[in-house]
Amino acid sequence: MKTLIVYGTRYGASAGTSEEIAKILTEEGNDVKVVNAKEEKIKDITPYELIIVGSGMQIGKWVGDAEDFLKKFHTEFENKKFAIFISSMKSVPQKEGKPEEVEKIRKAGLDNIIAKYNLHPIAIGFFGGVVDFNKMNFLFKRTLQSLKPQLEKDGFKETSPGVYELRDWEEIRTWTKDLALKAKQ
User: Fold this and answer.
1) At 102, which CATH number?
2) With contact defined as beta carbons under 8 Å apart, do 103 and 30 qualify?
3) pLDDT at 58
4) Do both 44 and 75 map to the same domain?
5) Can you give the pLDDT at residue 142?
6) What is the distance in angstroms between the CA of the first residue and the CA of the last residue of the chain?
7) Is 171's pLDDT higher than 90?
8) Which domain holds residue 115?
9) Are 177 and 158 within one domain?
10) Which region holds residue 10: left if phi is over 0, alpha if psi is between -120 and 50, else beta?
11) Under a CB-based contact definition with an 8 Å cutoff, are residues 32 and 26 in contact?
12) Do 70 and 19 sit in the same domain of this protein?
């Protein structure tokens, strides 16, 4: 199945997640193209049977380039198999037992976007992301600086100085295998 994955990323989480999704889908026999929405503007989605769009989240908002792709092609998704995912901070409130916070992130990042563009995904991915203090602007970094001790308390380790991995890779792989099955139906 000819598959297009388009993502928007701020700190690299959606890029890495998209690459992992592509790897699994390729293993499942799909022909996959992965596109960073900021670096390459897709002009035509006609050749693709499966379209996957993903984005990182910051302050409840999608990366602009990824949302622009949704805005441009949302009506054409009706004739395609379509899936959507976000990379978010959901892992933190999950670890802290705050389901209302997890639901708030899901609503802002997925439910509201799906409703806004009248999307009908066959799969919805709600994943953790990456916190990279090195790529944040000064104000955002200063605001989130108090998050570092909480991340460590919750068991998230620095993968390199200033970078915290919040993704559950097995969750992403399982979601992708399920998506591959749904797309074949």
Assistant:
1) 3.40.50.360
2) no
3) 82
4) yes
5) 82
6) 12
7) yes
8) 2-129+168-184
9) no
10) alpha
11) yes
12) yes
Q: Do 79 and 155 fall into the same domain?
A: no
Tokens of 80: 């395609």
Residue 2's SS3 state is strand
* Radius of gyration of the chain from its Cα atoms, rounded to whole angstroms: 16
Residue 32 has pLDDT above 90, yes or no: yes
What total of structural domains would you count in the chain? Answer: 2
DSSP-assigned beta bridge partners for residue 82: 51
Q: Tell me how far apart the alpha carbons of residues 166 and 89 are, in angstroms, rounded to a whole number.
A: 7
User: For residues 125 and 84, is the Cβ–Cβ distance under 8 A?
Assistant: yes
pLDDT at 174 over 90: yes
Please check whether residue 184 is in contact with residue 145, taking contact to mean a CB–CB distance below 8 angstroms.
Answer: no
Residues 17, 41: one domain? yes
Round the average pLDDT of the chain to a whole number and report it: 94
In the chain, the amino acid numbered 156 is F
pLDDT in tens, 57-66: 988 899 999 9
pLDDT band at 147 (very low <50, low <70, confident <90, very high): confident
Q: Judge contact between 134 and 125, C-beta under 8 A.
A: no
Distance of CA 1 to the CA centre of its chain: 21
pLDDT in tens, 46-59: 999 999 999 999 88
**Whether residue 53 is found in the same domain as residue 139:** no
Same domain, 158 and 85: no
Q: How many CB atoms lie within 10 A of CB 113?
A: 21
